[in-house]
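Homework help thread (please don't just give me the answer)

Our assignment gives two proteins as sequence + structure token strings and asks us to describe the second one. The first is just a warm-up. Here they are:
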Amino acid sequence: MIFLEAANKIIQEVLTKQFDPATRSGVRVNGGDFDGTKFVLETDAGNKNILNLSVYVHGEKVFTKYGGIDLLKKTLPGLTVQSPGLKVEDQVHTFTITIDVEKEEKNKAKWLQEIPRCKTTYMSAVFLQAMEKHTKGETMEPIQIPYRPDENIYLISYKGKSLVAVYSILFRDPDDVVLANGFLCEFKDAKKDRALNAAPNMNFSQGQLAGELVDVKSVTEPRDERTLKKEGWGFVSISLLDVQLKADKQMNTAELLIGFRSYLHYHLKCMKAYMHIRMRERVEKLMQNLNAAKDLSGKKTEKKTMSGKTFKQN
């Protein structure tokens, strides 16, 4: 299976060119990510050495409330991080990072690693704070993260037990429900392997509200099972164990949780593409066999019916 990288390749490639004086030029790049994030990377009008990266993240109020901007400033010392960000094409972005590529050329390796990961760093703050409170045994109300326009992540702490991340996923294609069920069953079965015994527990429910959300008042998804099934709602619960909540593992755990929804849908699309390729191959082989069975000799043959009458086949 392929893990999607936290760094944005488009931003990384543009930065690489701008750090090189030979390829440095005025640029303006609009882009996006699998989770609906949008960004604009452009040089300053008066100085091509100044780059502005403006990023819009859905659910920005929650991420900022839990220290997203503070974590970003801590990760990018020496760079200007402005929040709210610049207004570009009538869109006020969540934050804007400004870098002078000429002055920061000595830190090129660091910024090529950190700046393309800025969205993930910003979104990680809420997960890191939840993990820290849980490990300290502090009381924590369920956190609702509207990471997509119609989907949420809920972080629920069971004191002394586990920290659970619940994803509400709206499957618009009925086929995705079947594929997702089979795909996620592999995660459950992974626990049977002793080598993966430390993997987090996972549960998937389709057309039924996740058990962890029954008593959560902030849930915005339908609670009626008939509506959940009709609209295609599914819920994935990931119970994090102590090994994933260790201080040196928390950032990696947060990145994986942020990318899980994109990871799931990416592999569902790959599965469907693979199935279609196999189907086309089978059809092509069948057509080859049918064509091979055709009589291309041009000879006329005589055949008889059950009653003994003879007829000619043209």
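The one we have to describe:
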Amino acid sequence: MCKEVFQMKELVEVIAKALVDNPDEVVVTETVKDKATIIELKVAKSDIGKVIGRQGRIAKSIRSVVKAAATKEDKKVIVDIM
């Protein structure tokens, strides 16, 4: 179980680091609550717009990719951008 969670966390981290100007400030944490895994993404204040995108399109895309990967593993994963 931990291996799948780590893969989702790693997926979010790789995507976020590719989008931002300060990849060293990307922090991804995961917690498991009930049957869902919550992945929290934190980036520098100057990079928050790049991760969210216009009208939230990039954030929605990140969530869609993670959801697709989680569905393949038969897991429920929630991505929160802090």
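TA reply:
I won't write it for you, but here's a hint about the kind of observation we're looking for: Helices lie at 2-19, 48-52, 57-72.
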